[in-house]
Amino acid sequence: MLKPNLLTANSAPFLFFSHGSLLSSHRSSPFRLRPATVKLQKIGKHDCIRCASGKVQSSSVDRDAPIGLRAVVAVKMTVGGLLSNLGPSRALDDTTDLFGKSLLLELLAAEVDPKTGQEKATIQAYAHKGSQDIDDIKYECDFTIPKSFGEIGAVLVTNEHHNEMFLKDITFSSDDTTTLTISCNSWVHSKSDNPEKRIFFTNKSYLPAQTPSGLRRSRSKELEIKRGDGQGERKDFERIYDYDVYNDLGDPDADEDKARPVLGGSKKYPYPRRCRTGRPRTQKDPLSETRSSSMYVPRDEAFSEVKSLQFSGKTLRSVLHAVIPSIQTALIESNLGFPYFTAIDKLYDEGLTLPKQEGLGLLQSIIPRLVKVISDGTDDVLKFEPPAMIEKDKFSWLRDEEFSRQTLAGVNPYAIQLVTEFPLKSKLDPQVYGPPESAINVEMIEEEIGGFMTVKEALKQKRLFMLDYHDLFLPFVHKVEELEGTTLYGSRTIFFLTNNGTLRPLAIELTRPASPLKPQWKQVFMPCWDATGAWLWKLAKAHVGAHDSGYHELITHWLRTHACVEPYIIAANRQLNAMHPIYRLLHPHFRYTMEINSLARQFLISAAGIIESSFSPLKYSMEISSVAYDQFWRFDMEALPADLIRRGMAVEDPIAEHGLRLTIEDYPFATDGLLIWSAIKQWIQDYVSHYYLDSSHVLEDYELQEFWNEVRTKGHGDKKDEPWWPKMDSPENLIHILTTITWVASAHHAAVNFGQYQYGGYFPNRPTIARIKMPVEDLQEDEFIKFLEKPEVALLRCFPSQIQATVVMAVLDVLSSHSPDEEYLGGEPELPWVHDPIIKAAYERFNGRLKEIEGIIDERNADPKLKNRFGAGTVPYESMKPFSEPGVTGMGIPNSISI
Ligand SMILES: [Fe+2]
C-alpha cells in the first residue's frame, strides 16, 4: 500500500536579500495577497533573508554585506548519460571534472534593476564534483551575492561534459540550513550538442501576468525554445514539442502491402496529432515518413533511466524485441489453432519452450513473471500465470451471465448502452448497406422475456441494453473478408436487465452487407435449448467477443486515451511555461505518455504490428479507429458523467449523488468511477480557485488561452470547427476541462488497461480475432458438416491461432502490470504543491478521499446484493481502487498513461 508522504518539503522557497521592499505582488497567489513574512536569518558571516509565513521581522545584522551561499546540484547516476562507464567520452568528462569546469551555474535575479529597468547581471560559479553515493553525485559551488541582487528567480545551467546529465534538484544553503530547493528532474544536454543554457525556475508558480520582472524574457524564451521552428529532423537531446500527422505507421519502401494511409490532416482520415519527429519521407510515398528503430520524443518524455529495470515500458520493449520473435520461431505454423481446449491450459502449466537464443537469460531477470528457466537450466520457457477469472472459476467464460457482467465490470465497460428505440436501426446508407432495420424483432425478444413484460414495457422501464458494433464495422466487412485468416461482421447484442440488477443476453445479430457478388446475409442467434443452436450461440458470442476486443483496444483504449491525450501534452509544453500553475497541475498526468505512444507506433499499431496481426480487422484496424474518431469522439463527452448520459447509462438528477442517477444501479465501473471523478474534480477545483478568482483571470491568462487554442486547432485540428468544444472563459469551464483531461489520463486509462490480462489472459473469454465465418453463413455445406461433427473444433478454429493468442497474452501481461515505482493518483505530491500551504492542504484532502474510496470499493465488493461484482467465482471490481502493489493486480490508478 502506498503511503504518500505529504510532508517532505524541506525548504522555504525563496531567498531574499536585504534591500528595499521585500514584499511584492508576485510572491504569493496573484489574486490573494497574503501577508508574507520575510525573516532575516544569520547565515555564517553573512545575512540572508528568507520567505516564510508570518510577518516581516527586522535584523540587526549588517544589511549591506554580501551574502554567501552554497549550491549543491544532485545529479542522478544513469545508465547512458553522465557518469556512465559507457563510451569514450567518459574519460574526457572525468578530466573536465578534475579541472572543476564541468557545470556552470548562473543565478538569475527575479526582479530587474529598478534603476535601469534591465535584467541584473547573472552571478556565475562553476560547480565541482563532490560527494557520491549509490544514486547521486553531488556537484557543489559557492556564491557570493551582492545585497542588491534580491530574490533568486531561476538558475541557468551549462553542462560542459560531453554527455548529457540528469539533474534532480539544486539546493541552496548556508550553515547547513537549506533555504531554497529548485526541482529539476530533467536531462541537461551537453554544451557540445547545444550551446543554449538550460533554465530552471524556482518552485513558485506564477500566472503569466504575475511573472517577476526579471523572469519575463526568460519565461517567453523558454517556450520559444520548446516550440522549435518546425524544421529538420529532431535530435535525441532536444526538448522540442511539435505536431505531426500519423504518417509513419506504414512502410511502403519495404513492401507495397505495408503502405498505409496517413491518419490526420484530411477529411477522409481525421485523427489526433502525434509528436513531430521530422524523419525523411519514404521514396514510394512522399506523404509518409520513414520508419526508424528509435523514434524521437522530447528528451524528458523518454522513459527515465532512473526508473527501475522493471519499469513497464522497458519490460514491454523487451517483450516486443525478444519474446515475440521467439514465439514466432517456436510456433512455426502461423495459422495453426489450438487442437483442443486442454492445449490452452498447457500455456499455464507447462509453458512454451522458447528456442535457445542470446539474451533470453537476461529477459528472465527482467520479466520473471513470463519467462522461466526450467529446473535443469537448459531451456527458457514462456509460462503464463493463470488470469484471475480462470483462477476463480475455470468455466465462467462459457456462461452468459459472465459474458453480460463483463460489459459492466470488465475491461471494456465503455461500450454498453441503453436501447432507446425498437427495432434497432442503422444510420448507414440503405442504398449501400441494405435496409436499416435490425433483424432482431419484437417476437424474438418477447420469446425470451415473454410473460414478464412486453418489449414496449421493457423500453419504457429502461430494461433493454446493447453492444452495438454494427455501423462501425459494417463498411469494413467486405475489405476484411478479402484478407486471409480473418472475418468480420457488423454485430448487435441485446441484453435484458433482470430484477437482480444483472444483464441477460437475449440475442446476437450478425450482418454481412450485400456486395456485387453476394446478397446481404443477416442472422439472429439466441440462447438455445438444442445442441446446434447452443453451439451457434457460443460461436456468435465468440464473434461479438472479437468485436468487443477490437473496439476496446482500438477505441476505448488506444484512441480515447493514448492518442487523444498526446495533443494536450504537446500543447501544454509549447504554451504553458514550467512556472505556470496549470502546467504544474497537469505535468504528472503526462509522464511517459509520448514515449509509450512512440513505442506503440513502432510495434503495436504499425503495419504488420501486433494489432494488425492479431485483431479481426487486421490491416484496417487503424482506419477503423479513424472512423470512430470522426464519428464519435467529442471532448465534451470524455467527461465520465457526459459519457454515461450519452450512452443512456445515467440521467441528470440534482438530488442524486454526483448529480446523476444510474440506469443500472449496480454498474461497478460507473459507481466507482464517479467517486474518482468527483474526487479529482474537488482537488482541481481547490487548486484552480487558488489561482483564478473570476473569469477575467482566465481570459487574461494568455498562456492558458494559447494552450487551449492549440489543443483545439492543432492537436485536434481535424475537429477544430466543432461547436461542442468548451470555451476557456471561466474558472468553472477551466475546472471542467482539467478534470476531463486528468480523468482520461488516469482513471479512464486505468479502467481499460490494467484488467486486460485478468480477462484477456484466457483468450476464449476475449478472443481478439474470429478467424472463420459462422458455419451457417451462405449455408456452406462443408463447414456446416464439420461443425456438426465436432463443434468444439469449429470454435477453436474460430479463436486466435496459437501464435496470435500467445503473442497477445504476453503483451497483455506486460500492459496490465504496475512497475515497482508506479506513480499513483493522489500519491507523492509535486514539490511546488507542497510549497504552498493551501495547495498542500487541498492535496492532502484529495489523498485522504482516495483512501476513503478504496475502503468504499472494498465494502461494495463484499456486498452480496451487488451481483455484478460479488458472487461465486466472480472477480471483484477493483479497477477504480486508486493504489496497488506492483505487478498484475487488476487495481491501481496511475497518474498518467505510461503503459
Ligand atoms: Fe495503455
From TrEMBL:
SMART domains: LH2
Associated pathway: Lipid metabolism; oxylipin biosynthesis
Keyword Lipid biosynthesis: yes
UniProt cross-references to Pfam families, sorted A to Z: Lipoxygenase (PF00305), PLAT (PF01477)
Catalytic activity: (9Z,12Z,15Z)-octadecatrienoate + O2 = (13S)-hydroperoxy-(9Z,11E,15Z)-octadecatrienoate; (9Z,12Z)-octadecadienoate + O2 = (13S)-hydroperoxy-(9Z,11E)-octadecadienoate
Example of a GO MF term: linoleate 13S-lipoxygenase activity
Stretches assigned to the PLAT domain: 71-202
Residue ranges constituting the Lipoxygenase domain according to the UniProt record: 205-899
Signal peptide: none
Broad class of where this protein is predominantly found: plastid
Biased composition range(s): Basic residues: 270-281
InterPro entries registered for this protein in UniProt: LipOase, LipOase_C, LipOase_C_sf, LipOase_CS, LipOase_Fe_BS, LipOase_plant, Lipoxy_PLAT/LH2, Lipoxygenase_dom_3
Annotated spans, Disordered: 251-293
Protein's name in the database: Lipoxygenase
Source organism of the structure: Phoenix dactylifera (Date palm)
Recorded name of the encoding gene: LOC103698211
